[in-house]
């Protein structure tokens, strides 16, 4: 296993990325380093230009394994480790042709996934500072707002940053959203059908856009109620009411949860906060690959 993934799964995704970038090989590098004599061994260093949390190291290793396995890597910062600007995160040694062929893909994935892990860590740390002692844990999760082809790796980066996973696909959980409610006739009708026909191992979650929908979901037997795009003051009044309804239900906040907003809701009696921005707009961590010889 590679970080919990089947090697074949990791390789299938990476091969698609490599085929996109190298459909006929690296033409420029082949012109200069395409012979045994010119394809000399060089060393390179992966250097951070800003602080962050490292994610994606196992992908760099697999990229170079798929390119021939002649590049040796040594990481000075572990997966999930914090780093500062100027730190050398990894050193590489191998044929210059192979190093150059994998450089852009390795950097793209590491920069992006490290940004996901870094942003997640900021949310997790902020909640830890503002969560009153003795309260139930408040989990930070992503959503399905992931980039095509990158979902498994982005969700891994969230976990590396200290977060947790939400459902991984439409097949992995029952989440009754607003359009489902329109099509089924409302919260109570949707819950009744889901409880009657859903596979028994699955919990049932309802997305509530209003306090009235949230109350109806709790009363109707939902296992999880997602409070969608509600303001902090609205949730501050609603959450204690839902807890007093007498059922143990997981309460999740989602929709527009910025770093400023998470400060406000960290003190509420919630179980989960799901944040789409962790994967759809984390920015980039600035890293570079310096050739040393």
TrEMBL record:
PANTHER family tied to this protein: NICOTINATE-NUCLEOTIDE PYROPHOSPHORYLASE [CARBOXYLATING]
Cited Pfam families: QRPTase_C (PF01729), QRPTase_N (PF02749)
GO terms for biological process, alphabetical: NAD+ biosynthetic process; quinolinate catabolic process
Catalytic activity, EC: 2.4.2.19
Keyword Nucleotidyltransferase assigned: no
Residues of the Quinolinate phosphoribosyl transferase N-terminal domain: 28-114
Single GO cellular component term: cytoplasm
Binding site for substrate: 104, 143-145, 167, 177, 207, 228, 254-256, 275-277
Sequence similarity: Belongs to the NadC/ModD family.
Coiled coil: none
Protein name (record): nicotinate-nucleotide diphosphorylase (carboxylating)
Sequence ranges assigned to domain Quinolinate phosphoribosyl transferase C-terminal in this UniProt record: 116-285
Xref: CDD domains: QPRTase
Keywords, sorted A to Z: Glycosyltransferase, Pyridine nucleotide biosynthesis, Transferase
Pathway membership: Cofactor biosynthesis; NAD(+) biosynthesis; nicotinate D-ribonucleotide from quinolinate: step 1/1
Function, as annotated: Involved in the catabolism of quinolinic acid (QA).
Presence of keyword Glycosyltransferase: yes
Species assigned in the record: Leptospirillum ferrodiazotrophum
């Amino acid at each position: 296993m590679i970080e919990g993934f089947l090697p074949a799964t990791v390789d299938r995704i990476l091969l698609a990325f490599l085929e996109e970038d190298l459909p006929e090989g690296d033409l420029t590098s082949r012109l200069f380093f395409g012979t045994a004599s010119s394809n000399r061994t060089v060393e390179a260093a992966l250097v951070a230009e800003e602080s962050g949390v490292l994610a994606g190291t196992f992908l760099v290793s697999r990229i170079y394994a798929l390119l021939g396995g002649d590049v040796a890597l040594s990481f000075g910062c572990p997966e999930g480790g914090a780093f500062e600007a100027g730190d050398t995160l990894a050193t590489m040694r191998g044929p210059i042709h192979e190093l150059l062929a994998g450089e852009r893909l390795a950097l793209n994935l590491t920069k992006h996934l490290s940004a996901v892990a870094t942003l997640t860590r900021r949310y997790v740390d902020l909640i830890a500072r503002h969560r009153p002692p003795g309260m139930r844990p408040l989990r930070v999760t992503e959503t399905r707002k992931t980039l095509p082809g990158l979902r498994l790796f982005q969700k891994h980066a969230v976990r590396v940053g200290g977060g947790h996973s939400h459902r991984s696909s439409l097949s992995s959980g029952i989440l009754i959203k607003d359009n489902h409610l329109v099509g089924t006739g409302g919260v109570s009708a949707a819950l009744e059908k889901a409880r009657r026909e859903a596979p028994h191992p699955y919990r049932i979650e309802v997305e509530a856009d209003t306090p009235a929908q949230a109350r109806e979901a709790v009363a109707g037997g939902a296992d999880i109620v997602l409070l969608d795009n509600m303001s902090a003051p609205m949730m501050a009044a609603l959450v204690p009411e839902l807890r007093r309804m007498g059922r143990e239900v997981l309460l999740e906040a989602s929709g527009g949860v910025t770093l400023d907003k998470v400060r406000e809701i960290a003190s509420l009696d919630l179980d989960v906060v799901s944040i789409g921005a962790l994967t759809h707009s984390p920015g980039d961590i600035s890293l570079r690959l310096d050739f040393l010889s």
